[in-house]
Amino acid sequence: MYRKILITTDGSAVSSMTACAGVKFAQQMGAEVLALFVAPEYQYPIYVEIIPPSYPSEEEYRAAMLRAGREHVQPILDSCEKKGLQCHGITAFAESAAQKIVDVANEHGCDLIFIGSHGRSGWGQLLLGSVTNKVLSHSKIPVLVHRLLKEPLPD
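User: That's the sequence. What structure does it adopt?
Assistant: Structure tokens below.
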């Protein structure tokens, strides 16, 4: 049914559990997986006239975010490899994570976006996370929202 599934991660325990569910779903479908981490664009400090020496340069920031992206995507790649699924990982930079998720899915020919909802308690369970909500409203391809039934244990 689905040939290529985009699975998003932000490196949190909640998104890691969602990614595990996404890989299992991809295995059931026999689909290829594209794992995506979206990092925020570099922000110059606008509150000072001179950039402080301790503030990372744009190159240092991008290198750190690429390392973080590889670390967050690697468990998905490893899980796919164990299950015999073809998988690629991407770290992308964007002001809007939601729009970047939709754009990457379209650019890479994905036919499903697998994304998590927020696992909050109380009234929060009725609301989707802002990124998930924006992906739902902007995507022209199907979006499967995975909801955790219980919160992951703290790291």
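Residues 58-82 form the longest helix (25 residues).
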